[in-house]
Structure formats: C-alpha cells, structure tokens
C-alpha cells in the first residue's frame, strides 16, 4: 500500500529559493508598530503587504474595546454559537452589520474563511456554481464541500459567464459567485454586468466583500454600494481581517436564509464562536468605518501615488483602482528574489506564487493603508527602483 506521506513534497522551486535565502513566507513579526511598520528579524521595515487597509489593527479604540470585552466576558466562548457560545455582543454586531449593508439579517463567524464555507449549505450535487476565475480558495472549498459543479469563467468575462449560464442543467439550481474586490489583482468585479445576467437567468448572486467592505463606496459598504447595486446582491460574505483590523467574518442576507444557515452550515454549527475581544474590536471598527471616511480616502490616494511611481519605473502593475498594486514578475524564482531584495531594502511585501496565481504569473502584491506617509511611499518606490535594477527587471 502506498504511504500517503510520500506525496507530501513542496514545489520543486522551493528548495533553490530557500537555499538562496529568498523564501518569502512565515517570517514572524516581533513587533507591529502603530505607524504601519513591522519589526522582523530585528529590523524595522515598511510593511506594504498587509490587508489592514484602514490601519485599524493598532488603533487604541479597538484595543480598548477588546480589553474591556476580555475583562467582562473572558478570552474565549468555549462553545459554538448554537450550543452555548453565543453572546449578546455577537447579536449586537450582527444587527449593526445587517443595517450597515442594507440586509435583513447577518451571522457572525469565527473567521472570514469559515464565512465562505457557510455557502456550502446552499447548493448540492445537482447544482452549478458559476464563479470568477480569481475567487478565493475558501470559496472554491465551499463548492467542493457541497459537491456542486463548479464552472469558472475568465476574470470579469461576461460573455463566457452568459455562455455557462445557458449551459446550466434546468433540473438543478445555479448561483453566481464572485468577489467585490479581488485580493490578488485589486480589481473590482463587473457587478453591473454580472447582476444583469443574474436577473436575466433567474439565479442568485453572492458577493464576497472581504477586501472591499469598509474601503470602497461612498459609505464604505463595498463594491455593491460603489456601483449603486446593493439590492442586486442576494448574499454578502465578509472578513474582519482586512478593513476591520481584527479577525472573524460574517454572512449577511435575507432573514430566512441566515436562519437556515445558522442550523445547516457545518462551519457555523461546529465551530467555536468568535472571541469576545474580536467581536468588540469589530464593533469598534464599524463605528470608525461609518464616521471616518478620510481613512479610506487616504489609503486609496496612497495607492494611486505609489502605483504611478512603480509604473513610471517600468513595472507592470495592471489597472487596479484600489489599494492593491500587483507588481507582475512572471517567474517564481525571480519573484522570490525580488521579494528578498526588497526586504533587504527595508520593505516587507507579499510574494504571490502558484497556486495563489496561475503558473508563470508570479507577482509581488503591494498594498497601501491609511497609515502610510509620503516619506514611506517614497522609500517603497526607491526600494523597487534599486531592487528592480539589480535584477534587470526595469531599465
């Protein structure tokens, strides 16, 4: 009989990357400073790989809220929401989120990943899920868990989406699954076109707002508000690990559907409830999102400035209008070498390599936050200039 452990080998490129000291993952932060910098291996670096777009994870108001919750409710919930882990604090956050997103109801989950796994309860083996090619791994896992048929279309390719909709088995159900803001490229979904197709074919539309809720739209309500199409989205998922500066997630939608998911979604029923500290921090973050729009304005302005600098240097950065700037490299090893060169220049980024991106499309993911100062952005651009020239990536 085969030993399943014999299959447990990393990608062939990992060994040479490790040997050259360019392995870009699992570098622990010893300290996270309040100005968006981190201390890693004893060095203070400008962090431009974070999802903390509004800079709230170190905000004193979130820290104070979390500490108060720990003092009154403890460090954990000791059970699932269904059994004995529900808190009044959870329900307060759910009511606030539902109102904020213009939905009837909401359900808080322990992580954003689990919020997306909840969707597995909506479909089954006879159903088809039509999904953008760039959706997050957690959404793919939800479809696999449900054993539904997954049909993916090229990023924002509405002609292909319509073709797949016409091919759906009329004897089964179908839904469209996409993201408001895509985590690798920073692009927004073509929600107007996607919503029109959903209406035309009579299928539900689910939008993962992990990265855009809190950042995009006049009130920070995400891509749906940005396009003025809040009512076109049947169900929202979101994560607190981005704009909310903590951990956790939520699903928001019609009351009947949320009630069904509370009882049928395994990732909800069998997971310990979100901690008091994270719940209180998310509530504090929601207050800031609603009342301090200047934070998202600053994060987006910083991205526009840095994107222009990197493009001017000769890098290919795509057409993202958000805080995420993908710096395309292509080759996996070269991408990791660029990551290391940037690290040595005092800049902490994120290397995105397969399977997070397609083969041959490795990139450095840069993201700006509300905390980044102009001198820090200048430092990042200078680091890319020096590192790119040493590696022959730019003139």
From TrEMBL:
It catalyses: 6-carboxyhexanoyl-[ACP] + L-alanine + H(+) = (8S)-8-amino-7-oxononanoate + holo-[ACP] + CO2. GO terms for molecular function: transaminase activity. Residues 46-383 form the Aminotransferase class I/classII large domain. The keyword Transferase applies. Gene3D superfamilies: Aspartate Aminotransferase, domain 1, Type I PLP-dependent aspartate aminotransferase-like (Major domain). Its cofactor is pyridoxal 5'-phosphate. This is 8-amino-7-oxononanoate synthase. Keywords: Aminotransferase, Transferase. The keyword Transferase applies. Its EC number is 2.3.1.47.
